[in-house]
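Private note to self, pasted from the team thread so I don't lose it. C-alpha coordinates:
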Protein backbone atom coordinates (compact mmCIF):
# COMPACT_ATOMS: atom_id res chain seq x y z
CA UNK A 1 0.00 0.00 0.00
CA UNK A 2 1.26 3.49 -0.88
CA UNK A 3 0.16 7.07 -0.25
CA UNK A 4 -0.92 8.69 -3.53
CA UNK A 5 -2.42 11.99 -2.34
CA UNK A 6 -3.11 14.14 0.72
CA UNK A 7 -5.84 16.78 0.84
CA UNK A 8 -7.04 19.27 3.42
CA UNK A 9 -10.62 20.50 3.78
CA UNK A 10 -11.01 23.74 5.72
CA UNK A 11 -14.42 23.68 7.40
CA UNK A 12 -16.07 26.42 9.43
CA UNK A 13 -19.32 27.34 11.14
CA UNK A 14 -20.10 30.70 12.82
CA UNK A 15 -20.58 30.61 16.60
CA UNK A 16 -20.03 32.92 19.54
CA UNK A 17 -18.34 31.51 22.60
CA UNK A 18 -15.82 32.52 25.23
CA UNK A 19 -13.30 30.12 26.72
CA UNK A 20 -11.02 32.65 28.39
CA UNK A 21 -9.79 36.10 27.45
CA UNK A 22 -10.67 35.68 23.78
CA UNK A 23 -14.09 35.44 22.13
CA UNK A 24 -14.48 32.75 19.49
CA UNK A 25 -16.50 33.70 16.43
CA UNK A 26 -16.26 30.50 14.44
CA UNK A 27 -15.92 26.78 14.96
CA UNK A 28 -13.30 25.54 12.54
CA UNK A 29 -10.73 22.90 11.72
CA UNK A 30 -8.61 21.49 8.95
CA UNK A 31 -9.68 17.96 8.02
CA UNK A 32 -6.85 16.00 6.42
CA UNK A 33 -7.49 13.02 4.16
CA UNK A 34 -4.75 10.62 3.13
CA UNK A 35 -5.44 8.57 -0.03
CA UNK A 36 -3.84 5.25 -0.97
CA UNK A 37 -3.36 3.24 -4.16
CA UNK A 38 -5.66 0.52 -2.79
CA UNK A 39 -8.68 2.82 -2.54
CA UNK A 40 -8.60 3.13 1.25
CA UNK A 41 -8.40 6.64 2.67
CA UNK A 42 -8.03 7.93 6.23
CA UNK A 43 -9.16 11.07 8.04
CA UNK A 44 -7.25 13.27 10.48
CA UNK A 45 -7.75 16.75 11.90
CA UNK A 46 -5.83 19.82 12.98
CA UNK A 47 -7.18 22.54 15.24
CA UNK A 48 -6.87 25.70 13.16
CA UNK A 49 -6.76 26.58 9.50
CA UNK A 50 -5.17 30.03 9.40
CA UNK A 51 -1.58 31.19 9.15
CA UNK A 52 1.03 29.08 10.92
CA UNK A 53 4.00 30.87 12.46
CA UNK A 54 7.48 29.87 11.35
CA UNK A 55 11.01 31.11 11.67
CA UNK A 56 10.74 32.88 8.36
CA UNK A 57 7.24 34.33 8.42
CA UNK A 58 3.70 33.01 8.07
CA UNK A 59 3.13 29.62 6.45
CA UNK A 60 -0.43 28.57 5.65
CA UNK A 61 -1.43 25.10 6.76
CA UNK A 62 -2.53 24.15 3.26
CA UNK A 63 0.82 25.23 1.84
CA UNK A 64 2.72 23.36 4.55
CA UNK A 65 0.73 20.22 3.83
CA UNK A 66 0.59 20.46 0.04
CA UNK A 67 4.01 21.87 -0.80
CA UNK A 68 6.22 20.64 2.03
CA UNK A 69 4.83 17.51 3.67
CA UNK A 70 2.98 15.78 0.82
CA UNK A 71 5.96 15.56 -1.58
CA UNK A 72 7.91 13.68 1.10
CA UNK A 73 5.09 11.23 1.81
CA UNK A 74 3.94 10.27 -1.69
CA UNK A 75 4.87 6.62 -2.21
CA UNK A 76 5.25 5.90 1.51
CA UNK A 77 3.40 3.02 3.17
CA UNK A 78 0.71 4.56 5.45
CA UNK A 79 0.72 1.43 7.60
CA UNK A 80 4.28 2.26 8.61
CA UNK A 81 2.81 4.98 10.81
CA UNK A 82 5.85 6.01 12.82
CA UNK A 83 8.02 6.34 9.71
CA UNK A 84 5.39 8.48 7.96
CA UNK A 85 5.03 10.64 11.06
CA UNK A 86 8.78 11.15 11.34
CA UNK A 87 9.06 12.21 7.70
CA UNK A 88 6.16 14.65 8.15
CA UNK A 89 7.83 16.14 11.26
CA UNK A 90 11.14 16.49 9.41
CA UNK A 91 9.36 18.24 6.56
CA UNK A 92 7.68 20.68 8.98
CA UNK A 93 11.00 21.38 10.67
CA UNK A 94 12.59 22.15 7.31
CA UNK A 95 9.99 24.91 6.89
CA UNK A 96 10.80 26.33 10.33
CA UNK A 97 7.63 25.01 11.95
CA UNK A 98 7.83 24.06 15.64
CA UNK A 99 4.30 22.76 16.15
CA UNK A 100 3.27 19.34 14.90
CA UNK A 101 -0.39 19.94 13.99
CA UNK A 102 -0.09 18.84 10.36
CA UNK A 103 2.05 15.83 11.26
CA UNK A 104 -0.50 14.80 13.89
CA UNK A 105 -3.37 15.07 11.40
CA UNK A 106 -1.50 12.84 8.94
CA UNK A 107 -0.68 10.35 11.71
CA UNK A 108 -4.33 10.11 12.81
CA UNK A 109 -5.32 9.52 9.17
CA UNK A 110 -2.77 6.70 8.95
CA UNK A 111 -4.24 5.08 12.06
CA UNK A 112 -7.63 5.34 10.35
CA UNK A 113 -6.20 3.56 7.30
CA UNK A 114 -4.61 0.87 9.47
CA UNK A 115 -7.92 0.18 11.19
CA UNK A 116 -9.81 0.01 7.91
CA UNK A 117 -7.17 -2.28 6.39
CA UNK A 118 -7.41 -4.81 9.22
CA UNK A 119 -11.10 -4.15 9.89
CA UNK A 120 -10.55 -3.09 13.49
CA UNK A 121 -11.37 0.11 15.42
CA UNK A 122 -8.29 2.10 16.36
CA UNK A 123 -8.87 1.72 20.12
CA UNK A 124 -8.60 -2.07 19.75
CA UNK A 125 -5.39 -1.76 17.74
CA UNK A 126 -4.06 0.26 20.70
CA UNK A 127 -4.99 -2.57 23.07
CA UNK A 128 -8.23 -1.28 24.61
CA UNK A 129 -11.03 -3.82 24.28
CA UNK A 130 -13.92 -2.42 26.34
CA UNK A 131 -16.89 -0.60 24.88
CA UNK A 132 -16.90 2.75 26.72
CA UNK A 133 -14.62 5.44 28.17
CA UNK A 134 -15.44 8.16 30.76
CA UNK A 135 -15.59 11.81 29.66
CA UNK A 136 -16.09 15.16 31.35
CA UNK A 137 -18.42 17.90 30.17
CA UNK A 138 -16.54 21.05 29.12
CA UNK A 139 -18.82 24.11 28.96
CA UNK A 140 -17.61 27.61 28.10
CA UNK A 141 -17.08 30.67 30.30
CA UNK A 142 -20.45 32.17 31.28
CA UNK A 143 -22.16 34.12 34.04
CA UNK A 144 -22.91 32.08 37.21
CA UNK A 145 -26.68 31.90 36.73
CA UNK A 146 -26.22 30.59 33.17
CA UNK A 147 -23.54 28.00 33.85
CA UNK A 148 -25.25 26.73 36.99
CA UNK A 149 -28.42 26.14 34.99
CA UNK A 150 -26.31 24.16 32.53
CA UNK A 151 -24.87 22.18 35.44
CA UNK A 152 -28.37 21.00 36.29
CA UNK A 153 -28.69 19.76 32.72
CA UNK A 154 -25.35 17.89 32.80
CA UNK A 155 -26.34 16.24 36.07
CA UNK A 156 -29.61 15.09 34.51
CA UNK A 157 -27.69 13.68 31.53
CA UNK A 158 -25.61 11.50 33.82
CA UNK A 159 -22.19 13.13 33.54
CA UNK A 160 -19.83 12.07 36.32
CA UNK A 161 -17.24 14.79 35.73
CA UNK A 162 -17.14 18.41 34.58
CA UNK A 163 -14.60 21.15 33.96
CA UNK A 164 -15.76 24.61 35.02
CA UNK A 165 -14.26 27.68 33.39
CA UNK A 166 -13.66 30.66 35.61
CA UNK A 167 -11.88 34.01 35.41
CA UNK A 168 -14.81 36.37 34.87
CA UNK A 169 -13.12 39.18 36.78
CA UNK A 170 -9.99 38.75 34.69
CA UNK A 171 -11.71 39.17 31.32
CA UNK A 172 -14.18 41.99 32.00
CA UNK A 173 -17.21 39.91 32.99
CA UNK A 174 -17.06 40.89 36.66
CA UNK A 175 -15.44 43.69 38.67
CA UNK A 176 -11.74 43.96 37.84
CA UNK A 177 -9.81 41.04 39.35
CA UNK A 178 -12.81 40.08 41.47
CA UNK A 179 -13.17 36.41 42.43
CA UNK A 180 -16.78 36.79 43.57
CA UNK A 181 -18.51 35.30 40.52
CA UNK A 182 -15.88 32.57 40.15
CA UNK A 183 -16.50 31.48 43.74
CA UNK A 184 -20.24 31.60 43.12
CA UNK A 185 -19.83 29.22 40.18
CA UNK A 186 -17.63 26.79 42.10
CA UNK A 187 -19.70 26.63 45.27
CA UNK A 188 -22.95 26.55 43.33
CA UNK A 189 -21.78 23.69 41.14
CA UNK A 190 -20.68 21.59 44.11
CA UNK A 191 -24.07 22.15 45.75
CA UNK A 192 -25.85 21.01 42.58
CA UNK A 193 -23.67 17.96 41.98
CA UNK A 194 -23.06 16.77 45.51
CA UNK A 195 -19.88 15.12 46.70
CA UNK A 196 -19.60 12.41 44.05
CA UNK A 197 -19.09 14.61 41.00
CA UNK A 198 -15.51 15.08 39.74
CA UNK A 199 -14.88 18.80 39.23
CA UNK A 200 -11.97 20.36 37.38
CA UNK A 201 -11.38 24.12 37.11
CA UNK A 202 -9.80 26.03 34.20
CA UNK A 203 -8.94 29.75 34.17
CA UNK A 204 -7.56 29.50 30.62
CA UNK A 205 -4.40 31.33 31.76
CA UNK A 206 -6.11 34.43 33.15
CA UNK A 207 -5.10 34.37 36.84
CA UNK A 208 -1.94 35.74 38.43
CA UNK A 209 -0.19 34.16 41.44
CA UNK A 210 -2.09 36.26 43.98
CA UNK A 211 -5.52 35.42 42.54
CA UNK A 212 -4.69 31.71 42.31
CA UNK A 213 -3.41 31.68 45.88
CA UNK A 214 -6.52 33.51 47.18
CA UNK A 215 -8.82 31.07 45.36
CA UNK A 216 -6.98 27.96 46.57
CA UNK A 217 -8.94 27.55 49.86
CA UNK A 218 -12.20 27.54 47.89
CA UNK A 219 -10.81 24.94 45.50
CA UNK A 220 -9.85 22.78 48.47
CA UNK A 221 -13.28 23.31 50.03
CA UNK A 222 -15.12 22.01 46.99
CA UNK A 223 -12.51 19.26 46.46
CA UNK A 224 -11.44 19.98 42.87
CA UNK A 225 -9.62 17.20 41.07
CA UNK A 226 -7.48 19.53 38.97
CA UNK A 227 -6.73 23.26 38.54
CA UNK A 228 -5.89 23.79 34.86
CA UNK A 229 -3.56 26.34 33.24
CA UNK A 230 -4.13 29.02 35.91
CA UNK A 231 -1.43 31.61 35.24
CA UNK A 232 -1.32 34.49 32.76
CA UNK A 233 2.47 34.42 32.89
CA UNK A 234 2.59 30.95 31.36
CA UNK A 235 1.55 32.36 28.00
CA UNK A 236 5.29 32.93 27.54
CA UNK A 237 6.62 30.80 24.67
CA UNK A 238 9.62 30.01 26.88
CA UNK A 239 8.99 26.57 28.39
CA UNK A 240 11.49 27.20 31.20
CA UNK A 241 9.46 30.22 32.33
CA UNK A 242 6.30 28.11 32.26
CA UNK A 243 7.83 25.37 34.38
CA UNK A 244 9.33 27.81 36.89
CA UNK A 245 6.01 29.64 37.32
CA UNK A 246 4.07 26.42 37.83
CA UNK A 247 6.60 25.10 40.35
CA UNK A 248 6.34 28.39 42.24
CA UNK A 249 2.53 28.21 42.37
CA UNK A 250 2.55 24.52 43.29
CA UNK A 251 4.66 25.35 46.34
CA UNK A 252 2.06 27.90 47.50
CA UNK A 253 -1.18 25.94 47.21
CA UNK A 254 -2.49 22.50 48.06
CA UNK A 255 -4.52 21.92 44.90
CA UNK A 256 -3.61 19.50 42.06
CA UNK A 257 -2.24 21.52 39.13
CA UNK A 258 -2.53 20.55 35.48
CA UNK A 259 -1.06 22.04 32.33
CA UNK A 260 1.30 21.73 29.40
CA UNK A 261 -1.20 22.03 26.55
CA UNK A 262 1.12 24.28 24.53
CA UNK A 263 4.13 21.98 24.67
CA UNK A 264 5.18 20.17 21.48
CA UNK A 265 6.51 16.61 21.21
CA UNK A 266 7.81 14.39 24.00
CA UNK A 267 11.12 16.24 24.34
CA UNK A 268 9.47 19.49 25.45
CA UNK A 269 7.74 17.64 28.28
CA UNK A 270 10.97 16.53 29.94
CA UNK A 271 11.26 19.43 32.40
CA UNK A 272 7.61 19.80 33.28
CA UNK A 273 7.35 16.15 34.35
CA UNK A 274 10.86 15.63 35.78
CA UNK A 275 10.46 18.70 38.00
CA UNK A 276 6.88 17.64 38.77
CA UNK A 277 5.66 21.14 37.96
CA UNK A 278 2.16 19.73 37.53
CA UNK A 279 0.29 16.79 39.02
CA UNK A 280 -1.47 16.10 35.73
CA UNK A 281 0.24 16.84 32.42
CA UNK A 282 -2.04 17.85 29.55
CA UNK A 283 -0.53 17.53 26.08
CA UNK A 284 -2.87 18.56 23.31
CA UNK A 285 -2.83 15.55 21.01
CA UNK A 286 -2.80 17.74 17.89
CA UNK A 287 -0.10 20.17 19.10
CA UNK A 288 1.97 17.39 20.67
CA UNK A 289 2.20 15.26 17.54
CA UNK A 290 -0.56 12.66 17.40
CA UNK A 291 -1.76 9.47 19.04
CA UNK A 292 1.55 7.65 19.39
CA UNK A 293 3.44 10.69 20.65
CA UNK A 294 0.77 11.46 23.25
CA UNK A 295 0.97 7.91 24.60
CA UNK A 296 4.75 8.27 24.76
CA UNK A 297 4.38 11.51 26.75
CA UNK A 298 2.05 9.71 29.19
CA UNK A 299 4.61 6.93 29.62
CA UNK A 300 7.37 9.45 30.36
CA UNK A 301 5.12 11.26 32.85
CA UNK A 302 4.19 8.05 34.65
CA UNK A 303 7.86 7.42 35.43
CA UNK A 304 7.81 10.62 37.51
CA UNK A 305 4.47 9.93 39.19
CA UNK A 306 2.64 12.45 37.01
CA UNK A 307 -0.68 11.54 35.43
CA UNK A 308 -1.69 12.44 31.89
CA UNK A 309 -5.07 13.81 30.83
CA UNK A 310 -4.71 15.35 27.35
CA UNK A 311 -6.19 18.70 26.42
CA UNK A 312 -8.85 18.92 23.71
CA UNK A 313 -9.60 22.20 21.98
CA UNK A 314 -13.29 22.89 22.60
CA UNK A 315 -13.31 25.31 19.69
CA UNK A 316 -12.26 22.70 17.15
CA UNK A 317 -14.51 21.64 14.34
CA UNK A 318 -15.23 17.91 14.32
CA UNK A 319 -14.96 14.98 16.71
CA UNK A 320 -11.93 13.38 15.04
CA UNK A 321 -9.46 14.83 17.53
CA UNK A 322 -11.79 14.06 20.45
CA UNK A 323 -11.98 10.39 19.43
CA UNK A 324 -8.24 10.19 18.75
CA UNK A 325 -7.58 11.66 22.21
CA UNK A 326 -9.98 9.24 23.91
CA UNK A 327 -8.30 6.31 22.16
CA UNK A 328 -4.84 7.49 23.24
CA UNK A 329 -6.09 7.85 26.82
CA UNK A 330 -7.62 4.38 26.72
CA UNK A 331 -4.16 3.01 25.92
CA UNK A 332 -2.64 4.65 29.03
CA UNK A 333 -2.11 2.73 32.24
CA UNK A 334 -4.66 4.56 34.41
CA UNK A 335 -8.13 5.99 34.07
CA UNK A 336 -8.75 9.71 33.71
CA UNK A 337 -11.50 11.57 31.86
CA UNK A 338 -11.49 12.62 28.21
CA UNK A 339 -12.50 16.23 27.55
CA UNK A 340 -15.84 16.32 25.74
CA UNK A 341 -16.73 19.62 23.99
CA UNK A 342 -20.31 19.89 25.18
CA UNK A 343 -21.86 22.17 22.55
CA UNK A 344 -23.02 20.71 19.23
CA UNK A 345 -22.58 22.49 15.90
CA UNK A 346 -23.37 21.26 12.37
CA UNK A 347 -19.70 20.28 12.04
CA UNK A 348 -20.40 17.62 14.67
CA UNK A 349 -24.01 16.78 13.81
CA UNK A 350 -24.29 17.12 10.02
CA UNK A 351 -20.79 16.27 8.80
CA UNK A 352 -20.50 12.76 10.27
CA UNK A 353 -22.65 10.06 8.75
CA UNK A 354 -23.10 8.66 12.26
CA UNK A 355 -22.69 10.81 15.38
CA UNK A 356 -20.72 9.69 18.40
CA UNK A 357 -22.72 8.62 21.44
CA UNK A 358 -22.32 9.83 25.03
CA UNK A 359 -24.41 7.85 27.52
CA UNK A 360 -24.39 8.61 31.27
CA UNK A 361 -21.07 10.40 31.00
CA UNK A 362 -19.34 7.69 28.97
CA UNK A 363 -18.22 7.74 25.35
CA UNK A 364 -19.60 4.64 23.64
CA UNK A 365 -16.54 3.63 21.65
CA UNK A 366 -17.28 3.20 17.93
CA UNK A 367 -16.80 -0.38 16.79
CA UNK A 368 -16.46 0.47 13.11
CA UNK A 369 -13.03 -0.01 11.53
CA UNK A 370 -10.64 2.92 11.78
CA UNK A 371 -11.02 6.14 13.73
CA UNK A 372 -14.82 5.84 13.82
CA UNK A 373 -15.95 8.79 11.69
CA UNK A 374 -16.92 9.05 8.04
CA UNK A 375 -18.23 12.27 6.54
CA UNK A 376 -21.25 13.07 4.44
CA UNK A 377 -19.52 14.53 1.40
CA UNK A 378 -22.40 16.84 0.51
CA UNK A 379 -22.33 18.29 4.03
CA UNK A 380 -18.55 18.60 3.81
CA UNK A 381 -18.91 20.68 0.67
CA UNK A 382 -21.55 22.82 2.39
CA UNK A 383 -19.27 23.82 5.26
CA UNK A 384 -16.04 24.27 3.34
CA UNK A 385 -14.44 27.60 4.19
CA UNK A 386 -14.27 29.59 0.97
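Design output:
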Amino acid sequence: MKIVDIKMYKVSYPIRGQWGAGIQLENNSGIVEVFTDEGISGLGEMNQVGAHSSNSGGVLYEDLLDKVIKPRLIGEDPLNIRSVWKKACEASASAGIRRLDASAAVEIACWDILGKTYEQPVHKLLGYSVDKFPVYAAPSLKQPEVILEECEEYKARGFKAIKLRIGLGMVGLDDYRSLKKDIQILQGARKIFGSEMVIGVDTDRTYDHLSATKLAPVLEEIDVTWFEEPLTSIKSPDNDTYVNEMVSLKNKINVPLSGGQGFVGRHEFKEIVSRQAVDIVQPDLIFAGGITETIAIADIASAWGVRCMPHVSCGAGTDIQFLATAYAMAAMSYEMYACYPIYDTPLRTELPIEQIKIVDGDLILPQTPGIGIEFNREALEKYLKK
